[in-house]
Amino acid sequence: MRSLGLLLLALLAACASYDGRGLRPGESRGEDVIALMGEPALRWQDADGAQQFAYPRGPAGFHTFMVMLAPDGRLRSIENVLYQVHLARVRPGMSKEQVLRTLGPPDERLSAYFPARDELAWDWRFIEGFASPMRMIVLFDAAAGTVRSTMIQPEQSAFADPPTP
Fold first, then answer.
1. pLDDT of 98-154, one tens digit each?
2. Is 83:95 a contact under the CB 8 Å cutoff?
3. Do the domain assignments include residue 9?
4. Count of Cβ atoms closer than 10 Å to residue 17 Cβ
5. What is the count of structural domains for the chain?
6. What does the buried/exposed string (b/e) look like for 38-58 if buried means 16 or more CB atoms within 10 Å of the residue's CB?
7. CA-to-CA distance for 71 and 134, rounded, in angstroms?
8. Do 97 and 42 touch, CB atoms closer than 8 A?
9. CB 8 within 8 A of CB 15
10. pTM here?
């Protein structure tokens, strides 16, 4: 019984760190974020000292949390960026770095290079509404390293019915 209690406590602690719940904007510091959420997958430092941390919760997950820290190291915000409002910010001409700072790292298992078009496709999974798994695909001109186009499509499930001819 005690083992079950410890397991439940460990699971609860893991869930608390998933999205940074418990961290307080204006009070929590960068070290608090890392202590709770772990090392970020990507981090950026702006010229003014502000920082941004990316926490993708994949590859099986549907969330990427962006943590914004003020120049003094205090938490400004934590936000899941895999929602339509953020996805819509990706525009043709953006660099790979700009896309990474907007959406975080793509799902490398689904990203691909297409030599015939000299095109790189990056892929993110997200949830539309309450239950529809979707994919955001950003197509880059590989030579220029800039966004060529984007598309959103339903995620194909292994359990979905095959298409009919």
1. 999 999 999 988 899 999 999 999 999 999 877 789 999 999 999 999 999 999 999
2. no
3. no
4. 16
5. 2
6. eebeeeeeeeeeebbbbbbbb
7. 35
8. no
9. no
10. 0.82
